[in-house]
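# step 3/5: fold
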Amino acid sequence: MSLLPSDLQGYSSILSVVLLFADGLIFGVAAKKALTSVVLIIIGLVIAGSIGLSIPFLTTNDVWMHIVNIFVSQARHVGPVLYSFPVFWIVGFAIGIWKG
């Protein structure tokens, strides 16, 4: 059962591909902005630590180890699932990161 009007039901596969591409594009732009923010936060913590300022109970080494642990745990989960993503979503994501 489709939620599309009857005159658009013939185009449901095309609309799905376009929506998958748009979703990947938006997610790619968001991922690039998030990565930029994380890098700037880490640079700010390193500069603050080098001039003697620090956040109590938070060191650069703790932040770095936490980030590494997050990446390692996500790499374990994403492995085989990565191959099941639709191709158009991956293309949209790549373009979002590239142009975002």
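# step 4/5: annotate
The mean pLDDT is 80.
# step 5/5: archive (pending)
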